[in-house]
Amino acid sequence: CIASSSSTHPLYPAPFFHYPPSSCTPPFPSPTPLSSCTSLCTAPPLPLIHPLNKQPANGSGEGHAKPRKAFPVLGIDYTHVRIPFEISLWILLACLMKLGFHVIPSVSNIVPESCLLIVVGLLVGGLIKGVGEKPPILKSDIFFLFLLPPIILDAGYFLPLRQFTENLGTILIFAVVGTLWNAFFLGGLMYAVCQLGGPGLNHIGLLANLLFGSIISAVDPVAVLAVFEEIHINELLHILVFGESLLNDAVTVVLYHLFEEFANFEQVTIIDIILGFLSFFVVSLGGVFVGVIYGVIAAFTSRFTSHIRVIEPLFVFLYSYMAYLSAELFHLSGIMALIASGVVMRPYVEANISHKSHTTIKYFLKMWSSVSETLIFIFLGVSTVAGHHYWNWTFVISTLLFCLIARVLGVLVLTWFINKFRIVKLTPKDQFIIAYGGLRGAIAFSLCYLLDYKHFGMRDMFLTAIITVIFFTVFVQGMTIRPLVDLLAVKKKQETKRSINEEIHTQFLDHLLTGIEDICGHYGHHHWKDKLNRFNKKYVKKCLIAGERSKEPQLIAFYHKMEMKQAIELVESGGIGKIPSAVSTVSIQNINPKTLPVERILPALSKDKEEEIRKILRNNLQKTRQRLRSYNRHTLVADPYEEAWNQMLLRRQKARQLEQKMNNYLTVPAHKLDSPTMSRARIGSDPLAYEPKADSENLPIITIDPASPQSPESVDLMNEEPKGCGGLPPSPEEDEEGLVMRVKEPSSPGTDDVFTPGTGDSPSNQRMLRCLSDPGPRPEPEEGEPFIPKGQ
């Protein structure tokens, strides 16, 4: 019932008035008296009274008159605005705290932001409790339905997909096997501690301890993001730890619901265990399937938003949130659904929406996730003060110790196994950072808060142990990981801007590795990635991307994105006043905003020139593999140049063998020169041995006169070529060597250059060629043979 004002307009008909519940009798006569407030809804309709015959509304006539009071100039109704007012105050407090930490860099450089926010929550909770009020507690429904989805959506939408897919196997092993190991190892040891811990812990059974182990074993993505983004660790370690924290949600959800249900059973059978094992695949793959469906729908919807650009960002948020809620509806993994929807919709949505919508999505997600993360850590501190706690030294200290031991052992064993299959091995420093970065956070707290007191009477002790582990990992490990990274000299993230050059070489290496896998017959992830890209380009893009952008190559799309980004940066820097509309990014890259004159106008490239540049990029840099014929190792096309190339290789191989032989001949001592008398005796025994040959045109002709062997001057040298170059006198070294034998020029002009000596050969080459005609000392001639055989 809505109370009407004391003065009404006389023209309003009476049946439209609503009376307050305290007034059971209307101010005018009624044929049916109203005995209760409910009679307003069940009484017959009242007859219409003419406005002129109506009694005055101020109660001046006869009947029950309402006492008049002063008009309220100022009223207070806090209960009407209590909930939204307090929510706004908490958000304002979170933003002011975040602003204050970054204004004072000396504090934020030493203590992580998450630690400071928890301290603020402890102070605010203590202040509220000190004034006699009950501090608010972070309820699980508020956390899982309103605070967690923005953080996961921001992480999934802007996920570095290339690093994530290249390390997906390692991430899955850490997320699935590592989480199972931590849960069962911690649960089994805590059950042993409870059995040996005394009368206060004996009543805690095995299933309750396994449930506690599954809650506390999962790495928290919120805590990992808060700490790792501040220390700027390298991309490999960041994606390994953060990817593990995202994907272990499926294991945590399955184990949590599994042990929660088993705790209510009187007896657990083998069928229950098998069904629990199968539920892991249903929860994880079902969450991914739901996310993919909503991602495709979001991409298809964005195809038709070209005329209504204002609502484009809303589709991204709504479809992602619907994916999360749909997964939670069926007890599937909502985190997996959010990640899958963000990864699937992003490339198609960004191709359809405007640049302003893209900027809106980016900054709204960052703002939303930052505020949610701040509120989570503040409410962790407040809930610590407001909650009920039961401290047991044995249980709490054992939980903390076994969490650290399980994490270290799991990382060491799994890394030893993973390094057998990885090309880039994980070093001991990397293993230490992965083990040290296993932080726990609000997810474990909220899951434990969901436990029912009827079935889990030890919930307060579980909450106390979980809060202790969260505080230890966030404060101790979070505060010391930055000095340890600097001390161990772990490689940090390098802030470099992507360029066209990097994109070209990345695509080239992808095509090259895919071709190598095809030739070898090994179907690795490059092969399947290429198949997926072809299917995406041939079918999916045409359905989900509007206009000509569906046919645009990836390199050109990246080119347009870089061009727009650089133009916006130049305009925001204020260093450029007027940019012609046709200026290409090639000319913009060379602009220095600080030294550029204000009145200078940049030379604009023509449209034809820009189209020519783009055509060159399309034809030569993108479709390299598409222009080649399909091939495999069984149907290789014969290369026409292969035979000639093989012949050239054979000739060069023979040349190397001859060179080795000549080197061997150089090591043999030269033949000792005979005396003139002995020479004349050899020549006299066979005069025809020194007859000049027809093909020896460049060799000296020696004429022998056997009639006068006693005279050494009888040996006449005719047509002897001088050993010096250009008529110069021979050098002393050449004079000692004797006659030089020159090689005949090759007959074929197109032969290999190994066999074609130049005109200006060095003396060393000439000496090597001379060795071909001087094979070294011979054995002593037998009796009856001439001193110099014929044909030599």
Automatic annotation (TrEMBL):
InterPro entries: Cation/H_exchanger_CPA1, Cation/H_exchanger_TM, NaH_exchanger, NHE-1-like, NHE_CaM-bd. The keyword Coiled coil applies. GO terms for cellular component: basolateral plasma membrane. The chain crosses the membrane at residues 87-104, 110-130, 142-159, 171-194, 206-227, 239-259, 271-301, 321-344, 365-387, 393-419, 431-450, 462-485. Residues 92-485 form the Cation/H+ exchanger transmembrane domain. It catalyses: Li(+)(out) + H(+)(in) = Li(+)(in) + H(+)(out); Li(+)(in) + Na(+)(out) = Li(+)(out) + Na(+)(in); Na(+)(in) + H(+)(out) = Na(+)(out) + H(+)(in). Residues 703-792 are annotated as: Disordered. Gene3D superfamilies: 6.10.140.1330, 6.10.250.1040, 6.10.250.2020. It is found in: Basolateral cell membrane. Keywords: Antiport, Calmodulin-binding, Cell membrane, Coiled coil, Glycoprotein, Ion transport, Lipoprotein, Membrane, Palmitate, Phosphoprotein, Sodium, Sodium transport, Transmembrane, Transmembrane helix, Transport, Ubl conjugation. Residues 583-667 form the Sodium/hydrogen exchanger regulatory region domain. GO terms for molecular function: calmodulin binding; potassium:proton antiporter activity; sodium:proton antiporter activity. Residues 607-634 form a coiled coil. It is a multi-pass membrane protein. Belongs to the monovalent cation:proton antiporter 1 (CPA1) transporter (TC 2.A.36) family. This is Sodium/hydrogen exchanger. It comes from Buteo japonicus. The lineage of its organism: Eukaryota, Metazoa, Chordata, Craniata, Vertebrata.
